[in-house]
Amino acid sequence: MLTAMLYDLWSAIRRAQLRKRAIAEVSALDDRLLRDIGLSRAEIRRAVDGTLRARGPARDARPGTPARPRCAPAAAGCR
């Protein structure tokens, strides 16, 4: 029982460390790179936590332009 509690504590500490590191790494990106991957600085924590809601097809797409389909890189016709 004590072993399980210590393991749970260790796991929680490790997850917190990994989260902090991920936030720091994404925060180090410049604004242009963040924009390229579709994030604003205000969204970094939610993106790392996995609670950022997905947007529609490209947020910055011009009206009337079709969204590019998402596909696996190995799929035929994907670039």
Keywords:
0% strand, mainly alpha, 79 residues, 48% helix, single chain
Q: What does this protein look like?
A:
The chain is built from 3 helices and no strands. By secondary structure, it is mainly alpha-helical. The protein has a domain at 2-49. Helices cover 48% and strands 0% of the residues.
Kindly summarize this structure in a few lines.
The chain is an all-alpha fold and 79 residues long. It has 3 helices and no strands.
Task: List the topology elements.
Layout: H1 2-27, H2 31-36, H3 44-49
| Low-confidence spans | none
Q: Whole-Å distance between the termini?
A: 52 Å
The run of helices and strands is HHH
The biggest sheet amounts to: none
Which structural class should the secondary elements be placed in?
A: mainly alpha
Mean pLDDT figure: 82
Contiguous helical run count: 3
Using only C-alpha atoms, the radius of gyration works out to 18 Å
Give the % helix: 40-55%
Assess the beta-strand content as a share of residues. Answer: under 5%
Write down how many β-strands occur, each being a DSSP E stretch of 2 or more residues.
0
Outline type: elongated
